[in-house]
Amino acid sequence: MSAVTCCRQQRPLLRPLEFLTKCIRSFSTTPTRFVTPRKLPRSTLLPGAEGVTDTSAIPLLHNSPVAALLRRRDPFRTGVIARKKGMTAVFDAKGVRTSCTILQIDRCQVMTNKTRDEHGYWAVQVGAGERNAKNVTKPMLGHFAKCETSPKQVIKEFRIRDERGLMKPGSLINANWFRKGQLVDLRANSKGKGFAGGMKRHGFSGQPASHGNSLMHRAMGSAGQSQGGGSRVLPGKRMAGRMGGERVTIPLVKILDVNNNLNTIVVKGPVPGPIDGIVTIQDARLSHPPNISTSYKKSMVHNPSKKAPKEEKAEAATA
């Protein structure tokens, strides 16, 4: 038996992974005692998670559904439904002219509340306007009867942060729900322009108007590559198509005036949508919330733990 075979028999064969690990360790120049461990962030409970029963005892993950719900920064209060009545201008004490839009609230009432335990999120359903009962389906008539309100023309939901924003069904919300100088978020559907070309829809400059150009003045030109780009039109390419008719949100709009007698709110600048269009108004998410302790009325706050007087009288009679 040769010396080579004796060495092979004495030394056990290493697996490929073990051999690679041994080589990496041999080339490492940093001693083990100088390697600092990676610092992990301390696991803390996110604010507002005390209402969650199944996760309040353990730290919340940053990619959990509850953490995503808390990162939404929903307002504490519900919003209102208004109609766009037109634009005008106001002058301040220094004579500076400011363009503004008048929004009017029409019989805005609270319909029902959405809770996290039952629906997965906190929200308040609000209805506005008036509708003939003959033109309403029976399921919706039952919903309006349960909410103790008349048939509404428009129904919207407003996400809120927690149970502190729940309201009593049937409560009437007027223009004094907001204050002068407050910042709000406006949402409405923009005017529909129909099918528009690239110059009108995206602001293209168009092709040359002379020098041999024939019947291609407002055309957008090439839409994609040939064989080098895959012979296709890349997603997101700006082309001709349906313009307008989309939901637009204008954040941080300042309220210039509030008239509770006319139930109108005057906001700074333009508002998307046509005249008499539906506009939703809610406290701005990117701003500090208003003082909700003075904004709420005791008769409008919904307290699920407190029993109604009729239920208390019935329990006393049965006892």
Automatic annotation (TrEMBL):
Biased composition (Basic and acidic residues): 308-319
Protein name stated in the entry: Large ribosomal subunit protein uL3m
PANTHER family listed in its UniProt record: 50S RIBOSOMAL PROTEIN L3, LARGE RIBOSOMAL SUBUNIT PROTEIN UL3M
Keyword set includes Signal: no
Cell compartments where the protein resides: Mitochondrion
Chain residue ranges for the region called Disordered: 287-319
Entry GO MF terms: structural constituent of ribosome
GO cellular component terms, semicolon-separated: mitochondrial large ribosomal subunit
SUPFAM superfamilies for the chain: Translation proteins
One GO process term, biological-process aspect: translation
Key words of the record: Mitochondrion, Ribonucleoprotein, Ribosomal protein, Transit peptide
Cited InterPro entries: Ribosomal_uL3, Ribosomal_uL3_bac/org-type, Ribosomal_uL3_CS, Transl_B-barrel_sf
Family, as annotated: Belongs to the universal ribosomal protein uL3 family.
Keyword Aminoacyl-tRNA synthetase: no
